[in-house]
Amino acid sequence: MTVFFRFITILRVFLRYRIDQLIPKQHLPLRVRLLLSPCSLFGDSKLNRGERLRRTCEELGPIFVKFGQLLSTRPDLVPDDIVAELNYLQDRVPPFPNDTFREIVEQALGASVESIFKDYDNEPLASASVAQVHTATLKNGKAVVIKAVRPNIALIIEQDVALLLKLARLLEKYSSDGRRLRPVEIVEDYRNTIFDELNLQKEAANASLLRRNFANSSLLYVPEIYWDYTRNNILVMERIYGIPVTNIEELHAQNTNMKRLAERGVEIFFTQVFHHNFFHADMHPGNIFVSREHPELPQYIAVDMAIVGSLTREDQYYLARNMLAMFRRDYRQVAELHVQSGWVPAHVGVEQFEAAIRTVCEPIFEKPLKDISFSNVLLSLFRTAQRFDMEVQPQLVLLQKTLLNIEGLGRQLYPDLDLWTTAHPFLERWLKKRFHPTALWGEFKRYGPEWMEKFPQIPHLIFNSLQQLQNIGQLAPEVHKTAQELQKRTAQSSRRYWLSVGLIVAAIIIANPDVYNFMSTQIQNLEVSAASIAIGGLGLLLLFIKR
Questions:
Q1: What is the end-to-end Cα distance of the chain in Å, rounded?
Q2: What gap in Å lies between CA 529 and CA 536, rounded to an integer?
């Protein structure tokens, strides 16, 4: 299929569902409105905008289905009614022929299916947007599933993404609403996500790490990956036999403790985000099952680890403190934390930001805790912050979407789920543990060898920086002036001299990006300002040397 004919197909579907009506005409230049005017010949659609977009994705095939799913993960950019409709998109597409599947498997593994597997099911177990799954049995009797990437899918993705990117650029160019929604960013994010999903070896590595994180855990089970049979386009893993988490009747039939099941889902989420810093970011109901064993202490089973997320240590810290401050209604601290974390620019007035947060959050917190949507509070907070020039934080958006899935699923299982009751003590414990001497000692043992390895480089870096001190006046007159004044006082006493040198060295570290970045890297795990440690630590070190 050529790009031209694909474009004609896309255009026909767009016109059928009048996608052009989703673009506010008042924001478009006259020539663009004239160009779109023939679309009115197709009549108005009786469907709402969310339904039109969903059906468009469904008719245009798996790539647009996946794109619609990605749009549903961006509630920070896409209106709620469209997100709600796109959440209905399912990964159910017609399977490709079994002969093709078998050929892909045999070519990837370099042997016939019969020689590799004891038996093999010709009928697919599931057919998704970018891959298809069949069941089989290994020669040792282990039941497995085989996942293979659809043939020629990469070429189709490239064509569709190229067209989507052109449409996004036009929308961003001619529509102020389009610029606000940042469609080009969404399409580029989609490109990265979809191509990551094509690499099944990467998904297998994600699953392997998640399995190791929850080894011997009663909370979550992750199927075993069989690496001998896994390639970039083929994944073979243990077959599981759990109950789909949405099958409420079957869960009740085995007397599952639904309250415990809902609470454990929340515990799994916070454990992944804060303890492991590696979370399954595609935990929609189709990827979650419940073990048939121990219904009183139910265990989750997770599959499809193509999309995962993690946070920086700084994001973890500020997110935890933000959550605690929010539910204490300490809006001032929430505002200050946003600025301290760098999510919001430093020039933003904390007072106005605090007032805006209070206006949004106070009505929400007047409800009983069990009626408060934790994920929606975060979403409201991020949307408010965007009015104060907060840049979109992809890792936080991914986390917020995952929390939205977990909370929605938890309340489907147990309507009275109070997420905060589970989250609050977890966050309190995590923050205390983060600064416990044992944790700090563990960090020192982990990074100590690296620090010792790089320590001999410090004198050389300092010497180079001292040579640059003559030119520092042009770049930072204040630092140069301070350095000269401090140097004039060095004759007073040897002790004061070396204190001054320590301060000068600290100033150089701050002024010189290479040295500053080097020092900051070494101390970032101690949760203390790099400048403070540089000034105090080097000053004291030089003092003690000359005593």
A1: 80
A2: 11
Residue 516 near residue 530, CB atoms below 8 Å? yes
Token couple for 148: 């293979």
Please state the φ and ψ torsions of residue 94, each to the nearest 5 degrees.
Answer: -55, 135
Residues labelled as active-site residues: 282
254 close to 288: Cβ distance less than 8 angstroms: no
Residue 543, classified by CB atoms within 10 Å of its CB into exposed (0-12), middle (13-18) or buried (19+), is middle
- Return the sign of the alpha-carbon dihedral for residues 397, 400, 404, 405: positive
Structure tokens, 424? 């609050």
Number of residues written out for the chain: 547
Q: What region, left, alpha or beta, does residue 230 occupy, with left being phi > 0 and alpha being psi -120 to 50 degrees?
A: beta
The four Cα atoms 324, 327, 333, 338 give a dihedral, to 10 degrees, of 70
Task: Answer left, alpha or beta for residue 362, where phi above 0 means left and psi between -120 and 50 means alpha.
Answer: alpha
| 59 Cβ contact partners less than 8 Å away, ≥ 6 residues apart | 13
| CB-based contacts of 285, cutoff 8 Å, min separation 6 | 244, 245, 246, 405, 409
pLDDT tens column, 322-376: 888 988 889 999 999 988 888 888 888 889 999 999 988 888 787 776 777 777 7
Higher pLDDT, 469 or 414: 414
Domains of the chain from N-terminus onward? 3-89+157-195 (no CATH), 98-150+199-308 (3.30.200.20), 311-434 (no CATH), 439-545 (no CATH)
Give, as one character, the DSSP assignment of residue 246. T
Helices 3-16 and 153-174 cross at an angle (nearest 10°) of 60
463 vs 270: CA distance, rounded Å? 46
